[in-house]
């Protein structure tokens, strides 16, 4: 009797788990499909920052204005690719070359560095929370595969540039351009674009309008990489 009861309970539990998984898959696919055509209303990073501000009793004013692909500076598009993910047009969401390099560096005694692509960063920013747990990394891989399958490369970069964090409460290229330089996202110069890309690794502790020596060096490196990639013509590969 006890054995039959336990067996029935396990079957019901298994059924519930699979129904939950199926529901999650269907909802996540539907959401990604929706955002292929409709601008995301925000991002999980914005939600996270708002919650942190409430917990710490430090009000934060979110600055963000969506801009379409044609309203975003070509220099900024190229600068972000040059800084963050130079194989963005050719990989399928995961840069195997960089992953191997990062692993080899760690095996040789160096610090394990990140090898996150623009696709992964977009998936994380829009759909997930910050952190390094295996659960979040697994969900990041799932959403990365979804957006790489259902969105174009151009759409991935467009969404990334509209949700990336550039300072406390400053999200998206339009808000960042006005925050740091007083210009629209379409009017950024190559210099301004490289400075904005240079602070992305740590946007809340660095400034694009008042760059320190580290930001200045990285900005110059990004500018050189932009030239090495062949200029904004590189964007045709998207």
Automatic annotation (TrEMBL):
Q: Which GO terms describe its molecular function?
A: pentosyltransferase activity; peptidoglycan glycosyltransferase activity
Q: Does the record carry Acyltransferase as a key word?
A: no
Give a GO cellular-component term: peptidoglycan-based cell wall
Is Transmembrane found in the keyword set? yes
Positions of the Glycosyl transferase family domain? 61-226
- Keywords from the UniProt entry: Cell inner membrane, Cell membrane, Cell shape, Cell wall biogenesis/degradation, Glycosyltransferase, Membrane, Peptidoglycan synthesis, Transferase, Transmembrane, Transmembrane helix
InterPro entries hit by this protein: Glyco_trans_51 (IPR001264), Lysozyme-like_dom_sf (IPR023346), PBP_transglycosylase (IPR036950), Pep_trsgly (IPR011812)
Subcellular location, principal:
membrane
Pathways involved? Cell wall biogenesis; peptidoglycan biosynthesis
The protein's superkingdom reads: Bacteria
The reaction(s) catalysed by this protein are: [GlcNAc-(1->4)-Mur2Ac(oyl-L-Ala-gamma-D-Glu-L-Lys-D-Ala-D-Ala)](n)-di-trans,octa-cis-undecaprenyl diphosphate + beta-D-GlcNAc-(1->4)-Mur2Ac(oyl-L-Ala-gamma-D-Glu-L-Lys-D-Ala-D-Ala)-di-trans,octa-cis-undecaprenyl diphosphate = [GlcNAc-(1->4)-Mur2Ac(oyl-L-Ala-gamma-D-Glu-L-Lys-D-Ala-D-Ala)](n+1)-di-trans,octa-cis-undecaprenyl diphosphate + di-trans,octa-cis-undecaprenyl diphosphate + H(+)
| Location of this chain's protein in the cell | Cell inner membrane
Q: What is its EC number?
A: 2.4.99.28
One Pfam match, given by its short name, reads: Transgly
Please report which protein family the annotation says this sequence is part of: Belongs to the glycosyltransferase 51 family.
Q: What is this protein called?
A: Biosynthetic peptidoglycan transglycosylase
């Amino acid at each position: 009797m006890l054995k039959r009861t336990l067996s029935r309970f396990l079957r019901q539990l298994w059924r519930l788990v699979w129904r939950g998984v199926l529901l999650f898959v269907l909802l996540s696919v539907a959401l990604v499909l929706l955002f292929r055509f409709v601008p995301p209303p925000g991002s999980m990073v914005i939600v996270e920052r708002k919650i942190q501000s409430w917990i710490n009793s430090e009000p934060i004013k979110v600055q963000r204005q969506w801009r379409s692909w044609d309203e975003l500076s070509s220099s900024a598009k190229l600068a972000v690719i040059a800084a963050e993910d130079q194989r963005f047009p050719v990989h399928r969401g995961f840069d195997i070359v960089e992953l191997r390099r990062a692993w080899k560096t760690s095996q040789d005694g160096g610090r394990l560095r990140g090898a996150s692509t623009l696709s992964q960063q977009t998936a994380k920013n829009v759909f997930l929370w910050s952190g390094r747990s295996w659960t979040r990394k697994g969900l990041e891989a799932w959403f990365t595969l979804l957006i790489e399958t259902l969105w174009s490369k151009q759409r991935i970069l467009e969404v990334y540039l509209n949700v990336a964090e550039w300072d406390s409460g400053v999200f998206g290229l339009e808000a960042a351009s006005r925050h740091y330089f007083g210009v629209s996202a379409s009017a950024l110069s190559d210099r301004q674009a490289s400075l904005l890309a240079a602070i992305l690794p740590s946007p809340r502790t660095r400034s694009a309008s008042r760059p320190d020596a580290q930001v200045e060096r990285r900005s110059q490196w990004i500018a050189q990489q932009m030239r090495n990639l062949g200029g904004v013509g590189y964007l045709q590969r998207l």
